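<instruction>
Derive structure tokens from the sequence
<data>
Labelled lines for chain and fold:
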Amino acid sequence: MLIADNYLDAENNADAYSYITKAAQYIDGITNKYTILKYKYCYARVHDANLKFSQAASLYLELSHSEGVVDVEAQAFLTRAVTCTILAPAGTQRSRLLTLLYKDDRTRMLEHYELLEKMYLERFIRLSEVKKFEEGLQPHQKGMTAENYTVLQKAVLEHNVLALSKIYNNISFDQLTKVLELPLDKAELLVATMISEGKIKAHINQSDRFVYFDAGMERTAIWSREGDDPAVQRHDRQRLRKRQSAHSGDYTEVPASCRQVLITEFQPKYRVPIVYCVYVEKHCFVIRLCMLMLN
């Protein structure tokens, strides 16, 4: 572990990984708690340095809960866990980490809790909103990806595509470029890459220049088939109450006078599920196509 630490300090991440994996062969026989904590911290740093942010975040979060770690150290580990989770690529592991961190009461005291919250709630994030967060990143966390994005830009863009997939059934290329603030070729490549990597369920139709999100179509079918099921309505109301408790005052039920307009005009025109609630942020009313059904 000492050798791995020295290689990390020298920014030789490959050799650091080699030596920490060698140490892993002997850690099961170690009983000293301090040695185990030091091993986990070193392994987390190695994953962090090698841009394996999901693995690093898991270890940092585990360390923040470890016995024998004082409050100041626990907060430092938790801060690192939040940072690595925000930088992690979209996927199941990142979603799990977002859930664990968002439900951890300690994160509400951290500087970048608002950004963590937006990612957990699948809100759209503009690149201009993460400038302050980017300033606090370590040099290796500001590296460039193969697509010529910074690590943070790539993470935010993937998050935004996921957020779009939860809002829309489909979106045109022109609208996609405006929303993501990317040139057409880069926006299309980003979505295509996420599809090929299994990060989103969607398909691209080049002829009509649209991206169709398969999950959105599935939601429409489910609502059409199960919309009158009391069990489904009860489950969806519970989901709404969960979100309302986290953001009291942000959600309001669509008035009955407006609901019929949404059903008869908005839904057929844009081929999206019927809307049951409105999300309010910064004095702007934004329609949220959540899986919520209210009587």
